[in-house]
Design brief:
The chain contains nine helices and ten strands. By secondary structure, it is of the alpha/beta class. α1 packs across α9, α4 packs parallel to α5 and α8 packs parallel to α9. The structure holds zinc ion.
Length: 316
């Protein structure tokens, strides 16, 4: 019987980026409360995270950067490196716990305990560069998960589809020379939206040319445009790449009701994207699929979106 994992831990609420900050603990509370209220929590396998061992974090982040982040938290600084990266004393440990949650989901999937998983972790990760915190992100959760699947579990090709409204600059840069990790991003056009990267012309470097696919979307694009891009560009590219596992950087901030960006996806649009990608994973990756939370700042939209994606994971 197919089973779906869910990574969550109350300690994820301990990371405080500042009282004004949109990336707030209430985001995960809203998700978890929805899973309890809907009864979905009883049908999925709750996976306990651990703090990721540094040896795995160091596969993609500089030791010196990791140490600076640790010290900044220890000293009680309230900002790390960029004005939108608010921190508290717990942030370092909780960022390690977010990475460790993804690693635990990878282990459970590869050990056969589950087929696939949703990781409700924070802080998010896709803007985090090798030695730079950006856009609410400190460690690149999804990128570290991809490396772990390759180095610990022997998978060869990993595809990462990033549908957060913002371009995942960190994930792209960490893998841009690597032909074994295909990074595909749908995001609001970099001329109107943070972080300003992700142009069509960014296609990878060196051996990795052709393994980065950026699909910038005009502001105010909606379900029709997203689903068209999925059908015409993403599914064919994935089919040709033949990944062993599909990972999703799932931001729910391209929804029409999200306060941070300017896109018009609906709940149904997100459902249809999830269904198309899950169907691909079922047909081509033995249902191996790890979805990792990135952005999404309207609590109702977030709870709806995560509930829907978990139901979709259960169906494959
Ligand atoms: Zn985002």
């Amino acid at each position: 019987m197919a089973s779906t994992g869910y990574v969550y831990d109350e300690r994820y609420l301990l990371h405080q980026a500042g009282t004004w900050h949109p990336e707030r603990p209430e985001r995960l509370k809203a998700i978890h409360q929805r899973l309890v209220a809907s009864g979905l929590l009883d049908q999925i396998v709750v996976i306990q995270p651990h703090e990721a061992p540094l040896v795995w974090v160091e596969t993609l982040h500089d030791r010196d950067y990791i140490e600076r982040f640790r010290k900044a938290c220890e000293k009680g600084q309230t900002i790390f490196q960029s004005a939108d990266n608010g921190i508290c004393r717990d942030s370092y440990k909780i960022a390690l716990l977010a990475v460790g949650g993804v690693l635990a989901a990878c282990d459970a999937m590869m050990n056969g305990q589950i087929n696939n998983a949703f990781c409700a972790v924070r802080p998010p990760g896709h803007h985090a560069e090798r030695a730079r915190a950006m856009g609410f992100c400190f460690f690149n959760n999804i990128a570290l998960g991809a490396r772990y699947l390759q180095q610990q579990h022997g998978l060869n090709r990993i595809a990462i589809v990033d549908w957060d409204v913002h371009h995942g600059n960190g994930t792209q840069h960490l893998f841009e020379e690597d032909p074994r990790v295909f990074y595909i991003s749908l995001h609001e056009d970099p001329t109107t939206c943070y972080p300003g990267t992700g142009r069509k012309t960014e296609k990878g470097r060196g051996a990795g040319v052709g393994y980065t696919l950026n699909i910038p979307m005009a502001a105010h694009s909606g379900d029709a445009e997203y689903l068209q891009a999925l059908k015409d560009k993403i599914i064919p590219a994935l089919t040709e790449f033949r990944p062993d596992c599909l990972m999703i950087s799932a931001g729910f901030d391209a929804h029409a009701d999200d306060p941070l960006a300017h896109m018009n996806l609906s709940r149904q649009g997100y459902q249809q994207m999830g269904q198309a990608l899950a169907q691909f994973a079922q047909e081509h990756c033995a249902s191996r699929m790890i979805i990792i939370l990135e952005g999404g700042y309207n609590l109702e939209v977030l709870a709806d979106g995560v509930e829907d994606q978990i139901r979709i994971l259960q169906s494959i």
